[in-house]
Amino acid sequence: MAARPGRSVLSLQGVALADRQFSAHTARLDLELPHGEVALVQVEDEHDAALLVDLCLGLADPGAGEVRFLGIDWATHTPRERFHRRRRIGAVMQTDVWPSHMTVLESVLVARAYHFNQPRAEVIADATELARLFGLPGLPAGRRDATPMRALVRAACVRGFLGSPDLIVVQDQVLDQSSELAVPMAQAISAACDRGATVLWITASLATQAAQFVHTNQAFRLGDHGLIRVRRSR
Prior knowledge:
It comes from Reyranella soli. By secondary structure, the protein is an alpha/beta fold.
């Protein structure tokens, strides 16, 4: 995977999760993710996983320390500036990504159309190519409630990788358990990293079928002492 020199895409320096109580120690999270690298982080508690995602996306501030995206501390930005910087981040998750007033297709395309003013035909072509990679004949055109979970999971993958984002955050419990998506996810991650993107996969277990197919540069487990580097068994 080709990595570009220079600053990290994502950096956590002495970060404390604002409302997490670690036993015995005040833990600090330190993480450096350069361009073109993949990191797996095992977080067993769903609440902690959600907190970590929010920190990385600039949706919440840490109790201590700094979270930097492309070299700049999220805390130095206004809410509007954070909103615009998030256009450079892709997220693969089910929570809060399917607005009830939009079809699944519109929800997948809206970020590219709004932030980058890319012609709709080009966005649809790119999204369709990704949809086929993830096992869909095309993008679901209906609303969330009328779309099968299998299709929603794959559409979430399309949404996360669409548009060559600098950072892709994966946090989807359904995806962790899907052996069908293991190979296409590995292919999508490899292609993204070849373009210089960085991938952070937050998973309930490093041993999930999907995660086992992904080549990683770093692997961690979140525990009472913060992020502990671990060696993955292959």
